[in-house]
Write a structure and sequence with these properties.
heterodimer, A: mainly alpha, two-stranded antiparallel sheet, 15 helices, globular, B: alpha+beta, 5-stranded antiparallel β-sheet, 20 strands
């Protein structure tokens, strides 16, 4: 009885204070984001304007230097390569992922779950191990070169490892599920009657795809592209293992500064530059690709 | 030869389910033709075969006297109004109507005129800029209609287009659809499970039962002269009798029912004594008089009122003619001034019907 009375009093309190109730529910979330996201971000923002300490760490002297360093063609090249690779990965994954997601979504109910399971199966091992596997396949004395030589397609090993292509392949491989799953979700919701209606009104399969399927699965295309593009910009494990020193990405640079180089301020500045560009890119993309839909939604 | 659509022995199997079984139909140009039957009878499959969404397992489909059996939907000059309307949610009403015109590469200046006309046809002139989800069910239905009709198809296929509307709107749309069809003169093939809808709108009806055609005819033929027990039962209500032929006379047959009634049947077909025959009588064909009354109709039997349901404009009586035969009778209300007779449960009454109102069923 005592407990029930207390419960009622608590409930009554929350009924009177709607906002407090909302806050109490959101609190864990706010706490989490505050401690593990916002605070480090503020710290990094501060670091990026400070000078590097003599023995690592920072010395509290304000400077623009860390940002100014980026004008160097060396870093601009890394930046450019990063976005080129991420952009290409996104395009490649769209081209591979869409037909895949489409087939899965239109497959028999029984098959659908098995196929979806296969898509997420690689998640069961760490992407580090999976990337090592790619090294074994791609290196000069690796599986692929052996096979091609054995089949007399090539006479001496192709250089595949430590190229931009290898990074592209590695990232595409790791992020495929992130493209397929949102695409699957939106394609699966697509009403088959709409596809029939398109055909009925004279649309060949090509036009049907362009005018009905793509616009109606746009949310999946947007989500999948962002889920692939954003993390692939920050990739460093894959590019480290498959790209080596020849094809450094900005993720590697940041890792290098925070790690071996012990230049936290410069690493922070690199992170912020990356973040700013990604933010603008995503914003522009959503405005360009999702604009009409957003407009429609607002009506 | 002036057929819009012709089906020749069309069979469609899905695995080991036969959805359409040897269906042969000739649908005339400008006809309002209905495919009527319970769910799962194959009417929608038949429609989809004509649309091109399904390919026949066997048989041929001709549209405008050209074999189109293996043509894709976009190669056929037919358009469909889907049960769910299937309007494109990402396009406006005008965009939906334009969809087919764009595929046909209609010139721009002509296109906007055609869209206007189509909107006009279904009285949605101000709605062109709206999106489908902003419209009511009835309005969406009209958009679906306009989208299909703007292409001037040889045949318009309608798959239970009024199924999702409430009763009042459905009635209004029935009349509207029918007059629209008469105005534009396009052949309509209309799928419905609603017998009343089929009767009010159609020029001819095909009643389907488990993939086969049960009967094809005008609404009047279907209602007044059902061929089988299924048709008689599915369309309207019927009282079924069966029995053995006891006498073959010059212009009628006599039949004895298990309950001992001797019924006179019309001389439609050749029967011989001893043959088992089934027939049906519609509930409104009976006359009910007080027990002592006189009637000149050949079939008259004294029965007892078992149940009575008052329905305002009419009353339904359940009357036992014999321990074996119980019938349902619909009696219309008479006008004031005319003799009004009402019976109560337990009353003895004289039930009679005309010989020709007994419809002999083949199965």
């Amino acid at each position: 009885m005592e407990k029930t009375g207390l419960r009622i009093r608590i409930l009554k309190f929350f009924n009177r204070h709607e906002n407090t109730r909302a806050l109490s529910v959101l609190f864990p979330c706010i706490f989490w984001i505050g401690i593990f996201f916002l605070l480090p971000l503020v710290l990094m923002a501060a670091y990026s304007f400070l000078q590097r300490g003599l023995y690592g760490g920072v010395s509290w002297i304000f400077t623009w230097e860390n940002y100014a360093r980026f004008v160097d063609p060396l870093y601009l090249k890394i930046l450019l390569r990063t976005f080129r690779i991420s952009f290409l990965t996104t395009i490649i994954l769209l081209l591979i992922g869409y037909p895949m997601a489409y087939r899965i979504a239109r497959a028999d109910k029984r098959w659908r779950n098995i196929l979806l399971f296969l898509v997420i199966l690689p998640f069961w091992t760490s992407d580090l191990i999976r990337t090592y596997a790619w090294m074994l396949i791609l290196r000069d004395t690796g599986l692929l070169n052996h096979l091609l030589q054995y089949l007399h397609i090539i006479s001496k090993p192709l250089t595949m490892l430590y190229t931009e292509g290898a990074i592209l392949l590695g990232i595409a491989y790791v992020y495929l599920p992130f493209m397929v799953l949102p695409l699957y979700a939106s394609i699966e919701k697509l009403d088959p009657a709409l596809l029939e209606a398109a055909e009925d009104l004279g649309a060949t399969p090509f036009w049907r795809f362009l005018k009905v399927t793509v616009p109606l699965t746009k949310s999946g295309i947007l989500a999948g592209s962002l889920l692939v593009f954003i993390p692939s910009v920050g990739v460093f494990v894959v590019s480290d293992l498959l790209g080596g020193a020849k094809a450094m990405m900005i993720g590697n640079l940041v890792q290098l500064q925070f790690g071996p180089a012990r230049n936290w301020p410069f690493g922070s500045a690199a992170s912020f530059i990356l973040m700013t560009i990604v933010l603008f890119a995503v914003f522009a993309y959503l405005k360009f690709a999702g604009g009409k839909e957003a407009l429609e939604e607002a009506r | 030869m002036d057929n819009s659509v012709e089906l020749r022995g069309v069979t469609k199997r899905f695995g080991n389910v036969t959805a359409a079984d040897n269906v042969s139909l000739e649908i005339r140009r400008g006809e309002f033709f209905s495919l009527l039957g319970p769910s799962g009878c194959g009417k929608t499959t038949t429609l989809r075969l004509v649309a091109g969404f399904e390919q026949p397992t066997r048989g041929e489909i001709l549209i405008n006297n050209v074999n189109v059996s293996n043509k894709r939907p976009y190669e056929r000059n037919v358009n469909t109004v889907f049960q769910s309307y299937a309007l494109f949610p990402h396009l406006t009403v005008a965009g939906n109507i334009r969809f087919g015109l764009e595929r046909k590469k209609t010139p721009k200046d002509q296109m906007s005129k055609l869209v206007e006309e189509a909107l006009d046809l279904v009285q949605l002139n101000e709605m062109g800029d709206r999106f489908p989800r902003q419209l009511s069910g009835g309005q969406q239905q009209r958009v679906a209609l306009a989208r299909a009709l703007v292409l001037r198809p040889e045949v318009l296929l309608l798959d239970e287009p009024l199924g999702a509307l409430d009763l009042k709107l459905r009635k209004a749309m029935q009349i509207e659809l029918k007059s629209l069809q008469e105005r534009i003169g396009i052949t309509f093939i209309y799928v419905t499970h609603d017998q009343e809808e089929a009767l009010t709108m159609s020029d001819r009806i095909a009643v389907m039962e488990s993939g086969r055609l049960a009967q094809v005819g005008t609404p009047e033929e279907i209602y007044e002269r059902p061929r089988t027990r299924f048709v008689a039962d599915f369309i309207g209500e019927s009282n079924f009798f069966s029995g053995e032929i006891t006498a073959v006379n010059e212009n009628n047959f006599e039949l004895k029912t298990p309950g001992g009634l001797t019924v006179v049947l019309p001389p439609d077909q050749g029967f011989s004594v001893g043959q088992q025959v089934q027939f049906s009588v519609r509930p409104e064909k009976f006359r009910v008089d007080p027990e002592s009354a006189e009637t000149d109709w050949e079939n008259k039997f004294v029965g007892e009122v078992v149940n009575k349901i008052y329905l305002g404009e009419s009353s339904h009586y359940v009357i036992a003619l014999s321990p074996e035969e119980t019938i349902t009778v619909f009696l219309k209300k008479e006008r004031t001034g005319q003799q009004q007779v009402s019976y109560s449960v337990g009353d003895k009454v004289l039930v009679s019907w005309h010989r020709d109102d007994s419809v002999i069923l083949v199965e």
